[in-house]
Amino acid sequence: MNSPNSSFSFHQWDSTVIQNNYAHRIGEERIGDYLLKQSLSESAYVIIGIRECCGPLANKGRSGAQFAFPAFVNAYLNTQVHEDYPKHSICILGEVVESDFQVQQEDKVNELDTFLELILNKYVASNQVPIFIGGGHNNALPIIRWSAKNQKLAVINLDAHADLRSTEVRHSGNSFSTALGEGALLHYSVLGLHEAYNNAHIREALKNDQIFHSFYESYVFQQRDLLNDLENILRHFHTDTQVGLEIDMDSIAYMPSSALSPSGWTLDQVRQFTHVFAKIQKQVAYLNLTEAAPISEMDMLMVGKALSYLVRDFTGV
To answer: In this structure, are residues 54 and 136 in contact, taking their beta carbons and an 8 Å threshold?
Structure first.
């Protein structure tokens, strides 16, 4: 299945692809073995890989986001299933792959917006929770558009950047400003912004009544508590509002990402945040793990395990 201008292709996974991506071990049941028994129609969670970097590149970020999903697969499929594994089922639907590198980046971002929404409409039911791995934060926009068709939508984003840039040209930095402008997003909460990397235009946009924000510096200097903020945000949403969770991997210190930083949350803090969100929020729209950009063998190992931990924490392990 190809996108309208064939800049992207979608490859649906089957048992052969799964078997080729993990090592079966006698006496153990790994996620790879578990997924062989699962079907799309019966799955509560549907994993979709996105292998592109046009969004981050259009936003002047680092390349490498196209490698996050392969790194995740290598780690995740080899993790263990045990008696405490959740009873609801999980499947990997497939992966979107960037296939034409000659097209202007911003043109490809628009094409990918359309293509991702088409894939979601075709394969994912409204009562299923999609989990997106890889690619840039540009992909939040089509995910929001799809989710908002079914129910009122709020989004919580753990991110060093608000991604509220001007909307003239699509890239990874303006998904949320675009979604708010279109009316697809009821409320936007962005936690842990880095003061040095959000410009005057963005700080003005943060004054919108539909937006709650906090700066990372306020947590570093012990003025705020991340989990308290999360619980307070969720407490104010009505029961008819679903909430999507966005985690930009550049919010984690030293995580290989499109905007790598030495300052940020620890992986364990983000794991706890993800697990608490999934535990207390009843109406969950989706999980988007984005902007990881591994470019070396060590990067692949670190990113793969980090993404694997977060998916397992979100799904209740």
So the answer is: yes
* Contact between residue 50 and residue 95 where contact means Cβ atoms under 8 Å apart: yes
Distance of CA 28 to the CA centre of its chain: 29
Q: Given a cut of 60, is residue 317 above it in pLDDT?
A: no
Kind and range of the H or E element at 64?
Answer: none
Tell me the pTM. Answer: 0.96
**Could you tell me if 8 and 119 are in contact, meaning their C-beta atoms sit under 8 angstroms apart?**
no
Band (pLDDT 50/70/90 cuts) for residue 261 is very high
CA distance 205 to 4: 33
For 251: left if phi > 0, alpha if psi spans -120 to 50, otherwise beta; the answer is: alpha
Query: Is 8-314 CATH 3.40.190.80?
Result: no
Q: How far apart are CA 206 and CA 200, in angstroms?
A: 10
* C-alpha 99: how far from chain center: 21
Q: Output the six-digit token pair for 303.
A: 């990113």
Whole-Å CA distances, 161 to 156, 189, 214, 215: 13, 12, 11, 10
